[in-house]
Amino acid sequence: MSIDLIKSIKEAEEQAEQIKKKSLEDSRQIIFDAREKAKKIIEEAEESADKEAKEIIEKVKNSANKEIEKLKEEVLQECNTIKNNSRKNLDKAVDIIIGRIVNSDGNS
To answer: Residue 53 CB: number of other CB atoms within 10 A?
Structure first.
């Protein structure tokens, strides 16, 4: 073998080794970048989910508060109806009692 052929083989082996190292570095960088991108996507998804959950909770709270106010109004109206009926019944009871007192005396 000639020296030139040996040099050529050695250079080819060195180039192959450099290509192998470069490929290994590139693949490591690709994996690192993919992991970073995946981490960022997960963080964004979590933030989006948190935001959406807060919005849903807020909507449910607002809906519940509206329902509570509606029920309060209905209960207040029922209470007023009961009070009014009680007053009418109280007036009737007073009239009955007064009527019995007057009628039991005979002349009052």
So the answer is: 10
Q: Terminus-to-terminus CA distance in the chain, angstroms?
A: 151
φ and ψ at residue 60, rounded to 5 degrees? -65, -40
Residue 79 to residues 21, 69, 84, 91, 92: CA-CA distances in angstroms? 85, 15, 9, 18, 20
Tens digit of pLDDT for each residue in 46-99? Answer: 999 999 999 999 999 999 999 999 999 999 999 999 998 888 888 888 888 888
- Residue 80 to residue 57: CA distance in whole angstroms: 34
* Residue burial 64-93, b: 16+ Cβ < 10 Å; e: rest: eeeeeeeeeeeeeeeeeeeeeeeeeeeeee
With residue 37 as reference, give the H or E element that holds it: helix 3-105
Q: Could you say which DSSP state residue 106 is in?
A: S
Q: State pTM to two decimals.
A: 0.54
